[in-house]
UniProtKB/TrEMBL annotation:
Signal peptide: none annotated. This is Uncharacterized protein. It comes from Rubroshorea leprosula.
Length: 285
């Protein structure tokens, strides 16, 4: 039975999750360490004046979605893998611990569950593994997914040889990557919060935005998600922000705050829990 069939009649057919600072709290320190590493890279590898680095880092982040996207837009040339390895390679991943509460919540839902992150594939897999969530998602839409021509890799990259999902089996079908290709051919990094990036993710995941709920800790990503027609949840905030339909101070509160996700599915729940444990996460890169 496909995902749509399992969730017929329910309000949501897909749960789309940002990863960093959404599936784990900002207090983990990864965000801060990541910013420090980006600034070190700008200083050491791009020879940007030390006094300029913090301001430039922030301004590029605001203007282009990520500092990396801004650096590329300004014409700095560097290898994407090298940048990601430098920025993520020394992160304090030890602070991320398995989260059985979130795992149980995710596995108790019938909807398709997909990660949509600006980060690279290696970081995404590391974080999901540390959190013990590596088999909770159907697929990952990451940097390499949206920027294929910048970093030529195979579109469908599985965790192991047995985990490749195809469109026929209800897995993600990335046949429509025209949006990502057309953008990357202009040498611009495609990432959230660009509306174009959200719309590309919707097409790649092959979901109906009106039946998809998008979780993210970034106010600007939430605003773009709403503009793209998604239902939206701001995570890490106890108050609603513009464009958000729900606010969750912590992802663990999702069942109390958004009961509709679990409505009308009790009869099939057990079957899905068993199925979910057998599905590996596929990276769309
Ligand atoms: Mg985030």
């Amino acid at each position: 039975m496909d995902a749509a069939g399992r969730t017929t009649g329910t309000k949501y057919e897909c749960l789309l999750f940002d990863m960093d600072d959404t599936l784990y709290p900002l207090s983990s320190g990864l965000n801060l360490a990541c910013r420090k590493n980006i600034q070190d890279y700008m200083l050491r590898h791009l020879n940007i004046e030390e006094s300029e680095v913090p301001r430039m880092c922030l301004e590029l982040y605001k203007e282009y979605g990520t500092t990396m996207a801004g650096l590329k837009a300004l014409g700095y040339e560097f290898d994407n893998d090298e940048f990601h390895a430098f920025v993520h390679g020394r992160l304090p991943y030890d602070t991320l611990k398995p989260d059985p509460v979130l795992r149980s919540l995710l596995l108790s839902t019938l909807q398709r569950k997909i990660i949509f992150t600006n980060s690279d594939k290696k970081h995404a897999l590391e974080v999901l593994n540390r959190l013990g969530l590596e088999d909770c998602f159907e697929g990952i839409i990451c940097f390499e997914t949206l920027n294929p021509a910048l970093e030529p890799v195979e579109f469908m990259d599985a965790l192991d040889d047995n985990a490749v999902l195809s469109g026929d089996e209800g897995g993600l079908d990335i046949t429509d990557s025209s949006a990502a290709n057309s953008v990357s051919s202009k040498r611009r990094v495609l990432c959230k919060p660009a509306l174009e990036a959200i719309e590309a993710a919707i097409r790649i995941a092959n979901v109906d935005p009106k039946k998809t709920i998008f979780f993210d800790d970034s106010a600007r990503n939430i605003a773009s998600g709403k503009a793209a027609g998604l239902h939206t949840v701001i995570v890490g905030s106890s108050v609603l922000i513009p464009g958000a339909d729900y606010a969750l101070s912590c992802i663990h509160n999702m069942k109390e705050a958004i009961a509709e996700i679990w409505e009308g599915e009790e009869g099939e729940q057990q079957e899905q829990v068993i199925q979910s444990t057998t599905v590996e996460t596929v990276v769309l890169a």
